[in-house]
From TrEMBL:
Highest taxon listed in the record's lineage: Eukaryota
Species whose genome carries this gene: Larinioides sclopetarius
InterPro entries recorded: Alpha/Gamma-adaptin-bd_p34
This protein's name: Alpha-and gamma-adaptin-binding protein p34
Amino acid sequence: MDCEGTIIISCDTLTPEDIICKILGVESLPESVASSSSVKGYAWSFKNKYYSSKINLYALEEKAELDSAFCDGIRAIIFYFDSQKQSSFDEVVSWLPFLKNINAEVQLLLCNNCLEENSNPALERKNILNWCVENQYELVELNPIPDSEEEDEEPFKSAKGYGRVIEALQSYTWANLVMEEEKASACAKEQTEENSATPSKDGCKTIKVEGQELDLEEKWLNNVLSGEDPGGESFEALFAKFASMKDRASGLNGDERKKYAEKVAIAFWRAMGGDEDEIEGLDSDE
């Protein structure tokens, strides 16, 4: 495999190639960079404010034993299924044994939308979400049903649909990413100041302070909440870590998720130089 990538599997009429076209933002696919009886690959180069990278998007069509070298380079898995068909969801589950040798840190389960109530209780939103939690997948609805009440309660909003798919893939720290000059300089300064930083299992970085391992994301949050300005780049630093914050929030339940979201919202507000009077009454220590 020339570079790292993601595999895309469809368990319904929407094909992996259709999904790849949406990610690439094209009407028709470019020439394949890899092709076999079961795998076709397409190069995707992307660039954001912080870094650029190039990965391959693989359309996986058939259940077959995958080459170990191929598996070693896969960092993301994307499934698509029809949330109204039990057979479609069962097909997703049937694929899992063929992917057991892949250590993917980004795992997305796509569907058009997921209903709170369904004629088939097994396909109700809460049960699909439970499966996602148990198998470490994120549910992404390509055309979510609007919920004004839920959106009003969200202290910050994230991308939806294919925008979330692209955001999740771009947020991963790919091995061949190239940092933008300004950001690379800031990262070098950060690592020098913190002595040693190592990637954790979930791709986030941790630092060792007096023998204790701390999450860099939590460190930045706490610094901003206490009134400190890390490196003079508080907002950009927090924004760069937004995806991992969102992932952490999705793993929390009830009051824990609300409190964590409040903490992030307060940190962003202060990092942007917001008026303290506007957040009076919010307790960031809880």
